[in-house]
Amino acid sequence: MPCKLWLALSVWLLLPTSEAGRQMPKLSDKKLCADSDCSHPILIARALQDYYPGDCRFIPIRQGQLIYVYAMLKDRGNLFWAGSVQDSYYGQQEARIGHFPSSVVEETHPLMPASTEVKTTKWDFYCN
C-alpha cells in the first residue's frame, strides 16, 4: 500500500503545471470569417512590432512576420484577430493558429471578405 501511494504521488508531482489542455475564458461569442468553417484566410497582415502573448490562447509574433488572418472576433473581443504566423522560411515554425491584437499588425493583402458571422466555441479558446 505505501508503495502505491508513493508511486501515485510521484506521478502527480511530475505532471506539467502549464495551461496546456485546459479551457480558457472566451474572448468573444462571435467572429467574422470568410466561410462558415473559418478555413479560408481573410487577409495577410505584417507585424508592426513584437507581441509576447499573455497566455496560451495567443500566438507570439515578431516584427516583420506575415500572419494569415482567419477570423476577426466581434463584440467584446473585437480588438483581437485569429491567425497563423508564416515564418521567413517555410516549415521553420510549426503552424499554430492563435489570437493576437489587431493593433500590432497592418493589413497588406486582402484575400476574401469577412462576411460570415460564426459563433465561437470552447475550442476557439482551448489551450493544447
Can you describe this structure?
The protein has one helix and nine strands. It has one helix at residues 2-14; strands at 22-23, 30-33, 43-47, 66-73, 80-86, 97-101, 105-110, 116-119, 126-127. The strands form two sheets. Strands 2, 3, 4, 5, 6, 7 and 8 form a seven-stranded antiparallel beta sheet that branches.
**Total strand segments:** 9
Helix content: 10-25%
Tell me the domain tally: 1
Would you give the CATH topology? Answer: SH3 type barrels
Strand content range: 25-35%
Through-space gap between termini = 35 Å
Anisotropy-based shape: globular
Question: Which regions are unreliable across 5 or more consecutive residues at pLDDT < 50?
Answer: 5-19
Could you state the order of secondary-structure elements as H and E?
A: HEEEEEEEEE
CATH architecture: Roll
CATH class: Mainly Beta
Q: What is the averaged pLDDT score?
A: 82
Count of discrete alpha- or pi-helical segments spanning 4 or more residues:
1
The largest β sheet comes out as: 7 strands, antiparallel
> By helix and strand content, what is the structural category?
mainly beta
CATH H level, superfamily name: SH3 Domains
The Cα radius of gyration reads 18 Å
Protein name: Melanoma-derived growth regulatory protein
Pfam family, one: SH3_2
Domain SH3: 40-110
Keywords: SH3 domain, Signal
Can you lay out the helices and strands and say which pair or pack?
Blueprint: H1 2-14, E1 22-23, E2 30-33, E3 43-47, E4 66-73, E5 80-86, E6 97-101, E7 105-110, E8 116-119, E9 126-127
Antiparallel strand pairs: 1-9, 2-4, 2-8, 3-4, 3-7, 4-5, 5-6
